[in-house]
Amino acid sequence: MLDRIKRHDMAGLATRAAPSADVGYLLDAALFTTTGFIVDDELEDPDTPPRLIDAYLAVADESDTAVDSDDLRLWADSLAQTRSHLTPGQKTRHCRGLSEWVKCHAGREGQLEHTRDLASYLDFRRADSGFSFLTVGVERSAGVDLEQMMHSSDLETLHAACLAHGTLVNDLFSYRKERDAPVPMNAVPVLQRAEGLTLQAAVDKVCGLIRRAELDVDRLVRKWKETDRAQALYAYAHAWWELLGGHLRWTMESERYHGRGHVWDGTFPTAMVLYPDRTVLVSA
C-alpha cells in the first residue's frame, strides 16, 4: 500500500490543486484522494468480490459504517474527517456523488454504450470521475456553499468547462496507461472510434477542447471578479481555476501515468513518446 501511496502522490496533487486553501483542508484532501485512488484500483479489479464492492458502497453512502478490513477502515476514517466540515446539504451531495462513483467504477466492463460519442462519454464521466463530490470539495476550499448561490447558465458553463478540462487533461496524459483496457475510458479512443479520426487527429482535437474549456473558465473568473455582487462566485470559480492548473501540473509529474522513475523537467511538452512501460514528454 505504501508503494501505491507514493506513486499516486495525492499530497502533491492536493497542494498543487488548492494552493490557497487552509492546511486542514489540504490534509483532508490528500488523505481522501489517496484512499480514493486505492479504492478505484480495487473497484476496477475484475477479481474484487461483489461483497467487497457492496461494503465500499455502504461506506460511501454511510448506510453501514461497520468495516472489516484495513483498507475499508482507512477510507471510512478519511470520509468521516472530510465530511465533518460540510454543511448538511453538502454532506448529502457528497454521499450521493460518491455512491454514484463507486457504482460506475464497479461496473465499467458493461459501460461501452457510454463511449459511443464524445458527448455521451463526457456525460458519463461526470459521475465516473466523481465530479459531484469534487464540486463539494471545491466549495469547501473556497469557503462557499453553492446552495446559497443563484444558479445560472454561467454556473452551468463553468461546471461543463471544468468537467471537460479535468477529464480531457487526464485522458491526454493517461492514454498510454489506459489504451489497452477492455473498455478504455478515454476520450482519445472514443474520438477515434466515433469520428474515424487518426490517433494524432484525436489527440489534436482533445488539446483544442482543453484550450476551449480553459478560455471559458478564464472568462468567467474575470467576469465575476469585476462584479461586486458576485464575489462568492468569483471565489468558487478561482478555486476551480487553481484546481485545474494544479491537476495539469500533477498529470505531467505523475509516475502513475508515465511510469516508475518519471521526472518532469518543468517545461510544457509539445509531444509524447509512448513506450510499453512509460511515457516520455518532449518539449520543442
From TrEMBL:
Pfam families: Terpene_syn_C_2. It comes from the Bacteria. Keywords: Lyase, Magnesium, Metal-binding. InterPro entries: Isoprenoid_synthase_dom_sf (IPR008949), Terpene_cyclase-like_2 (IPR034686). GO terms for molecular function: metal ion binding; terpene synthase activity. The keyword Oxidoreductase does not apply. It is an enzyme of class 4 (lyase). Its cofactor is Mg(2+). Gene3D superfamilies: Farnesyl Diphosphate Synthase. Its EC number is 4.2.3.-. Belongs to the terpene synthase family. This is Terpene synthase. It comes from Streptomyces pactum.
